[in-house]
Amino acid sequence: MSQLRESPVAVAGPPPRARELRRWVRRRRAAAGASLSLETVYVLALTVVITVAMVGPSWGRLLWPDRPAPESARWTVVALLAAAAVGLLLLLRRLGPLLLRRDDLAWLLPTPVPRRGLLLPALARVLVGAAAAGALVALGGVAQLAERPTPPSTFGWWVATGAAGGVLLALLAVAAQRRPGRARPLDVIPVVALPPLGALALVEPAGAVPGVPVVALGPLASAVLAAAAVATAVTVRALASFPGAPLHDPSRLLGSHLDAAYAAEPSFLPDLWERRYWRGRALRSRPLRRGRLPGPVRHDLLILARKRRRLGWLALAAAVPAVLVQAPGGTLALLVVLGGSLAAGTTLDATRRDAAAPALLRLLGLTGRRVLVARTVAPALLASVWCALAAAVLAATGDLPPGPWWALGLALGPTVAVMALRRARSGLVDNSLPLVDTPAGSFAPGPLIWLLAGVDQLMFAVPALAALGGLLAPTWAWVLVQVGLSAAGLAAWLLLGTDRRRPVL
Amino acid sequence: MPTPVVSARGLGVSFGSVAVLVDVDLDLPPGAALCLTGANGAGKSTLLRCVTGLLTPQAGTVSVFGATPDGSATFWRRVATTVEQPTWYLGLTVREHVELVRLAGGGDPADGHVDELFAVLGLAALADATPDVLSSGQRQRMLLAAVLARPSDLLVLDEPEQRLDTEIRPVVAGLLRDHLAGGGSLLLASHDPSFVAALGCPTLRLGADAS
User: Fold this and answer.
1) CA distance A371 to A354
2) Contact A364/B89, CB-based, under 8 Å?
3) pLDDT band at A205 (very low <50, low <70, confident <90, very high)
4) What's the CATH code, domain B6-205?
5) What pLDDT score does B191 carry?
6) Eight-class DSSP state of A182
């Protein structure tokens, strides 16, 4: 005889709707206490206000200049708009784009709750986000291409078209998420489209950009809006049979990022991204041979060979500073340092892992210094080549004063690599530090210190940064100064900042 | 009498109010093996961590090769251990990890030793896999392969038979006997009497029921 009054196979009735379940959960959570404190809201609002006050005016002028772009630069604008649309599609594909909170994923997805109700809020979030991004891209286009003064109707039609275009891209990404096997052609689009678009942006071909007649704007926008509406209706209808499997990975990824934000602990994100990069890749062992190169250098070279595709993207990204040559002062230097640091980071996962847990280093029996000397080779090479490439493209296409820019980039590379290596070694955020009181309230300095780890290395990059910041035109003597400073910074770090006795990073 | 490879006198370690090791003495002569046994929490891993310098005892002294274990690279070139579960390098296969350890230890990864280890430990089919997809038992085999791929005077192994299936345990015992036959020393902890018997080494029982 059963110990329970209800049969375990009894079917109670139709399942509740997702909306009702969510409301049920929300009520109980609210009873347990508010999830967002007033202090958090205040800090977030203050951060937004300070950021807008700091960069708002200069970026505002950049986004909505007094005059449209000159005739010669209009193809660049068109290429950038197309690249932004492709980038939005790429981003949506990377995000999911449909994703659930992890608790919904664990507790509601494997239940008989109707799938459409469960996924509708997620779809709405994606569509609103994509529409906003599309509108922003269109706004950028109008700002650069439309004559002044711009009629409100032109402005409105373009923004509406952009928003509807964003929605269409999001729906395309949702369809691809539903059937990943059929989505491969979609994922080829960025690979095929971005290189020629980048080239178009840099080359600035002669000839006028064919404009859209004002009278055609309304019908064009209406057609795109109608297409977006129909596609949305079809997608909403099909949500009822959306499979569960493609939701897991993006939802967990978002959850991990929210964890990092909530705990102010971004340090484990690089490892998370790296694990995602390697997951599912089939590798074939390549024999290591004895030779002059130390083991860790061979290891890094092997990783480089396996990340050929990423190296291709990095090479393409070397054109980004040249494309944004009109950006406010200091942005170019920042872009070159960031790009060089990204390039150096290609092989830095091993350093990050060894710094966090040196058990494998002990097995290798190598001192921290020997390992770091070896681990510096590939990042220094990558950062130097990337900075040299970026500076060369910048000099060839931008309005920079003549000079040996490529050599300056080459000389800057090792300093940027050391900065990236120091960041990779920085480990977890130190949340045990005392709070710092400021007139605007107190804040925990740990995340800020983590964020700035290694940045002080840039004091060895002053010549290159000054030149990229537009303060002076570089000469060969200036390049030599940068070479000396980079060498000094590298040597100082290896001598003073590494362990010459123990296998510890 | 030759200087012991490992010598501990009056060793004491406590975690809070729990005394894990109390007044422990041990000597491990060169070329010999010693197995630590005892119930869970008896202090086997703690003692191995003291011997490898990963933990400083609160009382007593430990010396390895006549010196306090200092965690230097020189120390780790003579001592290989599985006391810690290492994280693995992303983007390297199982075989490349083991070859890297052999190369860093001064050996030749292409001299066939790695092939032999993979064959006897049943890792040949997993050579191109990455460590993150291995089962816990397969990962234990890989760790043992890495430790045995490099030369070492002293092996410090924490439950090397752990998570291994019954067929492979005698194989591992055989590899450890080979290490001893080559002049190496072995200090290990184990819960498996048949594995210890296969090694044929003396035991030291730790914990409250130690005799």
Assistant:
1) 10
2) no
3) low
4) 3.40.50.300
5) 92
6) G
